[in-house]
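User: Show me a protein chain along with its predicted structure.
Assistant: Here is one chain, sequence first, then structure tokens.
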Amino acid sequence: MTSPATTSPPSGRARLAPALLWAAGAALVAYAFVAGGYLVTVLGFAALYAIFVTGLNFFMGYTGQVSFGQNAFAAIGGYTSAVLTTAYNWPVFAAMPLGIGAAALLALAIGYPTLRLRGHYLAMATLALGMIVQEIAVQWDRVTMGYTGIAAIPPLGAFGRELPNERAQLAALLAALALAVWVASRLKHSRLGHALAAIAGSEDAARALGIDVARYKLIAFVVAAVYAAFAGSMFAHFVGFVSPEVFGLHMVVLGFTMLYVGGIGTVYGPLVGALIISLLPETFRGFKEFQDLAYGAALIVILIYAPKGLASLARLWTRRGAAPDAAAAATAGTSRGDAGAAR
């Protein structure tokens, strides 16, 4: 007689994998703070793109939709902060929420009719949105300065005080990233996240379960827009400059690359992808004329051997560690059952 099946506790590898990830990230950040210089800037860009991609992941990874227009919301956040702080002397902590709110309102207005589309129709509609916003940034030069861009944007700060140096700004960006990831994780495991997962599986099946598909897709679209605007606004203050080229289509392409390299649909995939894609060009900088070739080859290797992203490698490693543990638990249960039968 065998004992009833029980849920085995997480394996040692399941607990070790995220711990190693966080330890490696903490070591890299600590080294950047000690060394300073260009590495601080690179990690700052990685943190900004990680926030941007986390929002993109919420719409694409959790909901199963496609959007090529996230750069539009980043541009709204960045330009709103830039204009208010340079032309009207608004404080940074007051200008940023207004830019995020403007992006959320645009997402509501655009998303309601647009999200009725599916597949490549939705992708083309969102692509048009990004192109329209970029063209407005070019043509409305009386406010946006056109291709010249807006310079001398004040750095990150709060309550009338600017952060003194790039290390302090990086600390602020990392704190914002931690908050963004925590919120995304809570949303994924909430009722909203379960509804979005059902929609990603099958919209028809989700409707049969009583899920308001249009409403939940709109919520996901607005959340992604808020993340993009937040990243765009912080970008403006971290770099001190914005222009139409900054928020061009290449921003979306880079975001897609980071998302798929890191692992779409996972909480930490955007962080891993943003860090890898930010560091790869610096790693191959010594190759000079072969830099782009080496960079492209590395991306191809990653996508071939980890088609579900680098986060999938951690899950695979965890499963391999869990299999022996499960077998040991089954053996122990059988032995206990045999001993009981013998008694």
